[in-house]
Amino acid sequence: MLHALARNWWAILLRGIAALVFGLCALFWPGAAGIALVILFGAYALVDGIFALVAAVRAVESHERWMALALEGVVGIAIAAVTYFDLRLTASALFLTIAAWAVLTGILEIVAAIQLRKVLPNDWLLLLGGIASIVFGALMVAFPLAGAVTVIYLIGAYAIVFGVVLIGFGLRLRQHAH
Questions:
Q1: HEC letters along 64-119
Q2: Rounded to whole angstroms, how far apart are CA atoms 91 and 93?
């Protein structure tokens, strides 16, 4: 694997440069980063909703409870549709949309955890995830502007650190290739 990485050191270097540029753009132009975040959130909500529906169908086939999973899937797909209907509208309300999605998903995760408790005793992780989703959604409602700016800056800072690490790694691989 090291030889394959060393031969393609330039690809890792380019990934690092792209991450660094994205991180700097997020810090200096948070609006553009916010639009990118809107698009990615919509994609995530759609994929999450589809997988929840797939899990619901499989639960039906196994004669298990499926309603909470199906509702979670419908909520995810509906939120994705709202997101892509008007990016400008969603951009202005992105974090309220995320908050609503987090609270609804959290509630449905708690319902699913309670139902699963009968077949999977002592499993508290899904319940904890549901509670975390509700708390996250409540904080986003309480502090929407602070949440939006903070998330964009955190993503930007992460991308810068990750980019610098990849650039360093790419340059080390270049030395190893020679």
A1: CCCHHHHHHHHHHHHHHHHHHHCHHHHHHHHHHHHHHHHHHHHHHHHHHHHHHCCC
A2: 5
Note whether 22 and 159 are within 8 A (CB). yes
- Residue that the structure tokens 């030889």 belong to: 3
Query: What's the pTM?
Result: 0.53
The Cα–Cα gap between 16 and 142 comes to 35
Q: What is the pLDDT of residues 93-112, one digit of tens each?
A: 767 777 888 899 989 989 98
Residue pair 13/170 in contact (Cβ under 8 Å)? The answer is yes
Residue 162 gets the label, from left (phi > 0), alpha (psi -120 to 50) or beta, of alpha
Domains of the chain, residue spans: 33-163
